[in-house]
Amino acid sequence: MDMKAFSLEGKTAWITGASYGIGFAIAEAFHAAGAKIVFNDISRELVDRGLASYREKGIPVHGYVCDVTDEKAVSALVETIEKEIGAIDILVNNAGIIRRIPMTEMSAEEWRKVVDVDLTAPFICAKAVIPGMIRKGGGKIINICSMMSELGRETVSAYAAAKGGLKMLTRNICSEYGGANIQCNGIGPGYIATPQTAPLRERQKDGSRHPFDQFIVSKTPAGRWGTTEDLQGPAVFLASAASDFVNGHVLYVDGGILAYIGKQP
Ligand code: NAP
Ligand code: GCO
Hints:
- By secondary structure, the protein is of the alpha/beta class.
- It is globular.
- It has helices at residues 21-32, 44-56, 71-84, 108-136, 157-177, 211-219, 232-239, and strands at 12-16, 36-41, 61-65, 90-93, 139-144, 182-189, 250-253.
- Helix 3 runs parallel beside helix 4.
- The chain starts with 11 loop residues before the first strand and ends in a 12-residue tail after the last strand.
- The chain has a seven-stranded parallel β-sheet, sandwiched between helices.
- The protein binds NADP nicotinamide-adenine-dinucleotide phosphate and D-gluconic acid.
- NADP nicotinamide-adenine-dinucleotide phosphate is lined by residues 16-17, 19-23, 41-42, 46, 67-69, 94-97, 117, 144, 146, 189, 191-192, 194-197.
């Protein structure tokens, strides 16, 4: 086998919401694999923060302010990228939000906001890049799903519904555009130490670990939270020619948590 299959040389990758966290780590890995990096985030402040972080790492990037829920803004951004940088070979739908609210206390507006960012925006971004991918003879779309694409838990109804829908959108893009040599797969991170999960890991007043932190560590065969680096290899694989015959799949990078019933109390 030619290991060049894992290279992203000559490819242009757009990672949404990649000023920090999982998106930033994926962009770092794609750069190391040879790709040209484009990212967006929702505010000028976040994009500037991201640009500074990439500069610190010596990673040349193009950064844009764009709200991925705004179809007009996304279409305009894709046009700009295609004009200024070139065709988009790889899209990573990474931007996301979560609101941890008991369902009976969640307003329909709060529900819609989560679904808008976590499900409708990946639809909008994929719809915007697919025509260019078809013209180019193919492409890669990676949707950042979640364990909540498979499981529910208290207070995350909108997030779980959106991430479950994102798993099915992944399968549908595979079904509809696999014939155009577009591979659309998901990555389902387990519990990853990023700002999004910081509230679940906060030290208690007495200095002890957050109960949820202890719960996740005990439920994960790997016995730890994931790091954003744990996602880099799987992301490069799904973005590269090495996965050309993998389509409609969600690759769970979760330390084994989804496979494990848990220790007997
Ligand atoms: P995150 O806190 O979820 O943030 C993702 C980025 O997207 C942030 O920069 C965020 O900006 C941005 N964003 C939010 N709404 C946006 C919009 N409308 N337009 C453009 N950008 C927007 O970071 P993360 O923990 O690295 O998560 C990244 C992805 O992985 C998300 O889809 C998340 O659901 C998923 N995920 C995370 C975990 C985990 O354990 N961390 C596990 C499974 C899946 P703001 O900072 O303003 O929100
Ligand atoms: C939560 C967490 C999870 C993780 C991730 C797990 O509140 O349960 O935020 O949703 O972010 O999605 O895969």
